[in-house]
Design brief:
It contains eleven helices and nine strands. It has 306 residues and is of the alpha/beta class. It has a domain of 208 residues. The strands form three sheets. Strands 1, 2, 4, 5 and 7 form a five-stranded mixed β-sheet that branches. The protein has a two-stranded parallel ribbon with strand order 3-6. It has a two-stranded antiparallel sheet with strand order 8-9. Bound molecules: zinc ion. The site of zinc ion has 6 residues, from helix 8.
Length: 306
């Protein structure tokens, strides 16, 4: 990421996000098999300067967890500080960044920036039919890490510590009743690979009843990615965390449209059925990859606060 403006505040903002991105990438390198050490991610001559500038990221990647993947952190920066006027302007900026490769590549042998790019960005909003105001979009991206174990860990950590619990329940309960959103919630997705709007996958329509744009089209194959990988999870989770009306109105409905479970019951079901097993699995996977797991899972806090 480049320093876009010259004030100290802006530099601190960029450093805050850069520090989180570096820590997250080093963490993902550490739990990769084989391990990839921090120096492999930095171009020649840059290891020491980066370490001097962001020392915490270089020592806490095997003891502290990231809350978000690298591309999610970039997306958060873009949304909060560059304040895109519309999804189109944000997507155009992201396409430009994707092309410019914000991680350095080490010839053909080292890790590639592609390993940390998300292929899909989703955005959702509440459209009040009686209002002429442009609805506020809430963004999310797909899991920006490679490897099934890395994804399993990041999805588990997200479900336990980051996402709204209704999203966590949807991800782990799979086919046991989708979460139904209020009728005015709309969800969109864009795929960078095809450079087109993207329909929700089979997993997403099993997890969520919401106005998807474009609509779902039935496919007879299973998805190649796990539940929880999709950009829709992060975007819908952020909507639930930012909009109390939507948050309290989600539910699970039966075949005849009757309400089976409300918000509190859904949270309880995640806690009772999935929380403990997910926590145990995440700890096991982390320990297998030589991440130092203490009594509590600890999260990375950047030294540049904003
Ligand atoms: Zn999906």
């Amino acid at each position: 990421m480049r320093v876009l403006k010259e004030t100290q505040d802006d530099k601190d903002v960029v450093c805050h996000y850069m520090e989180r991105v570096l820590h997250c990438i080093f963490f993902l390198g550490h739990i990769n098999k084989p391990k990839i050490s921090p120096d492999k991610f930095l171009p020649d001559g840059q290891y020491e300067p980066f370490k001097a500038h962001f020392p915490k990221a270089f020592v806490e990647y095997d003891t502290h967890l990231p809350r978000f993947g690298p591309y999610s952190i970039l997306l958060e920066y873009m949304v909060n500080y560059l304040k895109p006027e519309s999804p189109v302007s944000l997507l155009n900026k992201l396409v430009a960044i994707n092309k410019s490769l914000w991680i350095f590549e080490d010839g053909n042998t080292g890790p590639s920036s592609n390993d940390f790019m998300a292929s899909v960005v989703a955005y959702c909003c509440v459209k009040d039919p009686d209002s002429t105001e442009v609805p506020k979009m809430v963004y999310g991206c797909s899991m920006s890490c490679k490897g099934s174990v890395q994804k399993e860990i990041m999805i588990g950590v997200s479900a336990l510590h980051v996402w709204d619990r209704a999203i966590s329940y949807a991800v782990y309960s799979e086919d046991h009743g989708p979460i139904t959103f209020p009728e005015h919630v709309h969800c969109y997705a864009y795929n960078f690979n095809t450079q087109r709007a993207m329909r929700p996958c089979n997993n997403c329509v099993k997890m969520f009843v919401v106005n998807f744009h474009p609509e779902h089209q039935a496919q007879c194959h299973d998805e190649k990615w796990p539940y929880g990988n999709c950009a829709e999870n992060e975007s819908l989770s952020r909507l639930l965390q930012s909009d109390q009306d939507v948050r309290k109105d989600i539910c699970i409905v039966g075949d005849n449209g009757e309400k089976l479970s409300g918000r509190e019951e859904i949270e309880d079901m995640f806690k009772e059925k999935y929380e403990e097993t997910t926590d145990k699995k995440v700890r096991e996977r982390l320990a297998e990859r030589k991440f130092k797991v203490g009594e509590e899972l600890i999260f990375f806090t950047p030294s540049y606060s904003i």
